[in-house]
Write a structure and sequence with these properties.
10 helices; 34% helix; alpha/beta; seven-stranded mixed beta sheet; binds zinc ion
């Protein structure tokens, strides 16, 4: 399945893991090794981070429930140790759908306060799928000889985003605050804002270097340069949409101004769920607030 189709399927099915059961058998979980102890797993849904060591497995996001057996089998090939912690980078179903299954193996689910609130309010979540440890801002794990920083990103993709940075391994998992080479999905209804995304990238730029390996929410393993390109694109689009707002343009008028995103449409930033028009609309809604 193409990356763009895959994300579209995932976003339309947020929280509804059952719609995947018919094709979960066709999904292949692929393992990409980033450092001797850190891996990215891909399948269907958000990219999974896995960090292994003597004390156990540290996992980030878990895609959809029907995929849990395959994901657990893939992790077993990396380490015989149990999963001790599972971080949810945000509440969307293509990142949290497997929560119950992973918790059943004994893992503790950790997430921002708003992730738990949103999962409690969603019809599809059971008690066992909820984070048992929540935080409001930052927290650190000292695990497997590594310092792992988990930090909240304010109102970016959603209102409950967290990024995870492995200091010694120099690996960053951004969650959906970064779609590599694609327009962002700003979940305005769930508290997402373009200003939050821009602020987040600027904050992260001070933390990472040219050797950092970035696991984006979706898309291939990326670098600081890739993230800088996304920042440049967003600042350019923000300036253009702000100018249109200043000139009194309505949301529909901005949605029709294809010149705003043309350069990036031509570079292939558009994908089936977020094309040029959708990103212009999302930027308008976000900036007009
Ligand atoms: Zn998401």
């Amino acid at each position: 399945m193409k990356f763009s189709n895959l994300i579209m399927t995932c976003i339309f099915c947020l929280g509804a893991s059952s719609c995947f059961s018919q094709n979960a058998k066709d999904v292949i979980i692929e393992t990409h090794q980033l450092t001797p102890n850190v891996y990215m797993l891909t399948g269907q849904g958000g990219n999974i981070g896995v960090f292994v060591g003597d004390e156990g497995v540290f996992m980030i996001d878990d895609q959809f429930a029907p995929l849990s057996p395959k994901i657990l089998a893939a992790i077993k090939t990396l380490s015989p140790k149990p999963i001790k912690f599972l971080i949810n980078t945000h509440h969307h179903g293509d990142h949290t759908g497997g929560n119950s299954n992973i918790a059943e193996t004994g893992a503790l689910i950790v997430a921002h306060d708003n992730v738990r609130k949103r999962l409690v309010n969603s019809k599809s979540s059971t008690e066992s799928a909820l984070p048992v440890i929540t935080f409001s801002d930052d927290m650190n794990f000292h695990f497997n000889g590594e310092s792992i920083m988990v930090f909240h990103i304010h109102n970016a993709h959603t209102d409950g985003d967290a990024m995870v940075y492995f200091a010694n391994n120099n690996v960053l998992h951004t969650g959906d605050v970064f779609f590599s080479g694609r327009y962002p999905y700003i979940d305005v209804k769930a508290g997402g804002t373009v200003n939050g995304i821009i602020k987040a990238i600027k904050k992260v730029m001070m933390l990472i270097d040219d050797d950092t390996k970035i696991i984006p929410g979706h898309g291939p393993v990326s670098s600081k340069t890739d993230y800088q390109n996304t920042l440049n694109m967003l600042e350019d689009l923000k300036a253009k949409v702000n100018k249109a707002i200043k000139n009194g343009k309505t949301e529909d008028e901005v949605a029709n101004m294809s010149s705003i995103t043309k350069k990036y449409d031509d570079l292939g930033y558009g994908w089936s769920f977020i094309n040029g028009e959708k990103v212009r609309r999302a930027l308008y809604q976000s900036l007009k607030k």
